[in-house]
Amino acid sequence: MWSRGVPDLSPLAWKGLPPTRNQKLATLAELYALTESTTLEAANWYLRRRVSPSRKSKALRATAAISVVIGALLPLIHSAAPSWVNAEWGFIFLALGGGAVLFDRTFGYSASWTRYVRAGLTLQRLVANSQIEFTKIYIATDVDCPTDLEIEALLQVIERLQKEASEIVQEETNSWTGYLTESVEELTRTTVRHTEMSPHTRRGDVELR
Known about the structure:
mainly alpha, 6 helices
């Protein structure tokens, strides 16, 4: 869901390779720092975006729960004291509760909230694991004369972090677009079904016939 004040994700610029070949470790360290910063920025972006859907989801779910409880109690109150309240108000509150659930499903507040939290925490965990792995290899490497295997091991850590982070972002994007399409289709089906069941629609069909 769109949230005011949260900028879109954007790639970070890399300063490029060093001019000399004897700075391989410095190059890898710089490249890792760039990949780490990009992944952390994505993680924080998801965690910031969760705030607005979280509030709206809680409000809608609270509205639905309270409305259903009131809608179920009103007929019982009416049966005990008919003069206090009209039992038909129960249907209104039940409809209000159903509307809150439908509104939440259509705009995906609860789904967005859970997806944003899951994506943000997963990205943070990726960064933490890669930091440990990269540090272990880096401190065991001969700074003056790193071997090709050590260089390759460090590069694999960077590549794995970048690949897994990109897969998480892509999966979240695909999930959101799929959920949005399903929600629009469900809302369309619901609207068409209620339109066909409307008394005015049926009366119009009779008159046309």
